[in-house]
Amino acid sequence: MDNYTDKNKMKLGFGLMRLPKLEDGSIDVAQTAEMADLFLEAGGTYFDTAFMYPGSEEAIRDALVKRHPRDSYTLATKLMCSNDIADEETAKKEFYTSLERTQAGYFDYYLLHALQRSNYQKYEEYHIWDFVKELKEKGLIRHYGFSFHADPELLEELLNQHPDVDFVQLQINYADWENPGVNSRKNLEICRAHGKLVTVMEPVKGGILADPIDSVKEILDSDGHNVSYPSWAIRFVASQEGILIVLSGMSNLEQMKDNLSFMTDFKPLNEHEQELIRKAQEALNADQTIPCTGCRYCTKGCPMSIPIPDIFTVENRKKGSPEFRTKREYAIVTQGKGKASDCLECGQCEAACPQHLPIIDLLKQCRALEN
Fold first, then answer.
1. Half-sphere CA count of 28, side-chain side, radius 13 A
2. pTM for this model (two decimals)
């Protein structure tokens, strides 16, 4: 952990999963570059991408790597060993592809991506743990760890088996703090017990906490300070012990400016603010909204091409929308694709879901949108 705190003085990290898009759907590299410049000027250094984020590694090459000295930032990317990776050679090739895409020369942080019950054995089978150690010895990566979406028992097992990992990336936010499907608090405590620093993903839960339900807004607004909803979520996470970086998947310049406004001179939550967060957690626990983050991991292998996150978004909007509007929105998002009623219940989506949602049952619930 020699240069962790030296190179990452700000706890905010620039997550590159949800970069700004142009009208044709491609990444807006010019705006990404402007965001990267602003982030660096404010003292930020940590950029996080992944092999499987479409266009992200190439975009950060053009927006960051080609434009700034290599020692002015730290770059993280990931190797995904999903069940559709056919063999060990294909899995290991991801590293070299990432290196070619980014042209970064090396990675400061390299992660085994999205370990969970459905795939963690693949990393053992394909000798990926040994592979990253070899890369570290060669100087091609500086630190290695893994991102994790599973239960505390598996996390404990992995850290016991691989005590030399440098860090762990966890999903932590105030909505999932006690969520038994995510286990934010318990998993963080396990990392602390093992002496591992933590990088945090989904602090605003895929945007859900950036625009929370009305009852949560009322609670947070009662503070009277007129601050953004993302600031509550990100500061909650950054206030926890053992946090190296809190990743925010910023999608435009305005989000970058907002995040920097409260993280450049970060102040932990005070007791009053912590109490408001506890009340917000109670309100969220009483809500029945589907907590989908829109990561789209579930859609990649769907045999019926069902746009699962889009359907869940329409279902969630039913509360505040007239029936005709939600039915129209449902027709739009499913046009030329599978509908909820087309689900074959094969289960691949549930195996891929980082939130461990009961997707099959939820799609059955969504069939009412078709009537």
1. 15
2. 0.86
